[in-house]
Amino acid sequence: MPALRRDRLLTLLLLGALLSADLYFHLWPQVRRQLRPREHPRGCPCARRAASPGPAPAAASPAPRAAARNFSRAGPGPERRGGRGSKLQALYAHPLYRVPEEPPLLGPEDSLLASQEALRYYRRKVARWNRRHKMYQEQLNLTSLDAPLQLQLDASWIQFHLGISRHGLYPRSSPVVRQLLQDMRRSPTISADYSQDEKALLGACDCTQIVKPSGVHLKLVLRFSDFGKAMFKPMRQQRHEETPADFFYFIDFQRHNAEIAAFHLDRILDFRRVPPTVGRLVNVTKEILEVTKNEILQSVFFVSPASNVCFFAKCPYMCKTEYAVCGNPHLLEGSLSAFLPSLNLAPRLSVPNPWIRSYSLAGKEEWEVNPLYCDTVKQIYPYNSSRRLLNIIDMAIFDFLIGNMDRHHYEMFTKFGDDGFLIHLDNARGFGRHSQDELSILSPLSQCCRRGSGC
After folding, report:
1. Are 421 and 168 in contact (CB under 8 A)?
2. Which of 252, 399, 406, 426 is catalytic?
3. What is the pTM of this model?
4. Cβ(247)–Cβ(142) under 8 Å?
5. Residue 391 to residues 56, 121, 308, 375, 398: CA-CA distances in angstroms?
6. CA–CA separation, 4 and 6 (whole Å)
7. Is 310 helix (H, G, I), strand (E, B) or coil?
8. Strands 301-303 and 229-234, how do they pair?
9. Distance between CA 347 and CA 71 in Å, rounded?
10. Which of 135, 322, 388, 451 is deepest in the core (most CB within 10 A)?
11. Cβ within 8 Å of residue 291, ≥6 positions away
12. Cα 211 from Cα 251, distance rounded (Å)
């Protein structure tokens, strides 16, 4: 009996010790944290920032997420240099970018578009789209309560078009670009279609060719609810993937993120010759399939074995399903590049690049074997009497930085004549081998700028 009482006493002492340990090591620290006044940890930079007097509410810097979307030129001020905004904001706040604005526009000849003529043209386009959309709905016996589209004169894409001048696609400190990027990222789509060059092929795709005219590089034209248009290039490979060393540049996939990065680099270099480009997650079912009126585009949608919605270019079943792009299951990442004004308003000249590469497996162009090739180019109009050759060299430097070997043509607005800037379009084959520099891209610079001869 005494032994039993002794066992009970030992058990109670053990339980009491465990309860005391739990109170001391677990419950008591939590109580202390609740009772302790809230204060920042010693040495934390946030405490010093919070203790310092902040700026007035009107001068406060934007939220980080909003700042990351603000790609306009950052103004001076300690709050911008303090690193709270995006890296691009900090870059544009550097003294290197505080240079005088471009020369003022002297007259109508310096602007690409006449505003009244452009607005009349866009009103006719909107009216035509409304008529065709109504006819399409009547043919399919569809009823819609949506009001006809109205042209919004303050739409960012219209202001972008009206802001194009002989100095570039947009002014250096234009707030329109920031708004245009936001609109392309958020605006609902009202139509989707193939691009004009793919339509011109009429689906002709010879699968015996190494360079296929369509199918590999699928792209679509998306129109938004404000009637703006953008070129959509879907994601084809992961960002970390490089072009295999055995690939020719003309069979490489096009990269959507290369288009986005090229736009930002072009702006950093102050060329302003790449149309504004932004990334977006597109619902391929709701924002492409359900809004397109193109029956061929509708017919190439399918559901993959992984239950993802996919679609082809115009010659899918001839060139098999290896060239399809698929959502996850509906969302597909891609780039959206703003459309330039219609050729009816602003004609463009497409010119073969004098340093065009050979698009065959074994051929070489003259510039690749003749180091004095530029001497011949300098004797040809307009490279012998205008800034065209210097613009070609600018473009070559830009292409070298992005690793683009696919600059077979360049375009320019005819209104600005031979001295007009070159438009840096179609940069999707850039950044293919980011671990290697392709020095042959700089051939216009190395061949035309020699010691003692100048450029």
Report:
1. yes
2. 406
3. 0.75
4. no
5. 46, 31, 45, 17, 11
6. 5
7. strand
8. unpaired
9. 29
10. 388
11. 189, 190, 191, 192
12. 6
**What pLDDT, in 10s, does the model give residues 124-182?**
999 999 999 989 888 888 777 678 899 999 999 999 999 999 999 998 878 899 999 99
Which candidate, 76, 99, 72, places its Cα nearest to that of 86? Answer: 72
CA distance 443 to 138: 57
Cα dist from 140 to 126, 144, 384, whole Å:
21, 12, 58
Bridge partners of 111, per DSSP, are: 165
Between CA 280 and CA 188 the distance in angstroms is 12
Place 67 in a pLDDT band, splitting at 50, 70 and 90.
Answer: very low
Q: Answer whether 342's CB lies under 8 Å from 417's CB.
A: no
| pLDDT category of residue 13 using cuts at 50, 70 and 90 | confident
Q: What angle (nearest 5°) sits at the alpha carbon of residue 275, between those of residues 314 and 249? A: 55
Residue with tokens 């736009």: 263
* Among the listed residues 455, 400, 452, the one whose alpha carbon sits nearest the alpha carbon of residue 431: 400
Helix 256-268 vs helix 388-402: crossing angle, to nearest 10? 130
Residue 410, helix vs strand vs coil: strand
The identity of residue 115, as a single letter, is S
Burial of 140 (0-12, 13-18, 19+ CB in 10 A): exposed
Does the active-site annotation cover 406? yes
Based on its alpha-carbon atoms, the radius of gyration of the chain, rounded to whole angstroms, reads 30
- Give me 159's structure tokens: 């202001």
- Residue 254 and residue 218: Cα distance in Å, rounded? 9
User: Is the Cβ–Cβ distance between 323 and 302 less than 8 Å?
Assistant: no
CA distance 23 to 30: 10
The rounded distance, in Å, linking the Cα atoms of 231 and 397 is 25
The amino acid at residue 378 is K
**What spatial distance separates the first Cα and last Cα of the chain, rounded to whole Å?**
112
User: In the numeric block, which tokens belong to residue 445?
Assistant: 């610079």
- Residue closest to 183 by CA, chosen among 126, 222, 220: 222
> How far is residue 326's CA from residue 371's CA, in Å, rounded to a whole number?
46
**Paired sense of beta strands 220-224 and 229-234, if any:** antiparallel
Q: Which residues sit opposite 423 in a β-bridge?
A: 411
Q: CA 122 to CA 113: how far, in whole Å? A: 12
* CA 384 – CA 395 distance, rounded (Å): 18
DSSP 161-190: HHT-BTTBSS-TT-SHHHHHHHHHHHSPEE
Which residue has tokens 């090591």?
Answer: 25
d(CA 298, CA 140): 15
**pLDDT grade for 225, boundaries at 50, 70 and 90:** very high
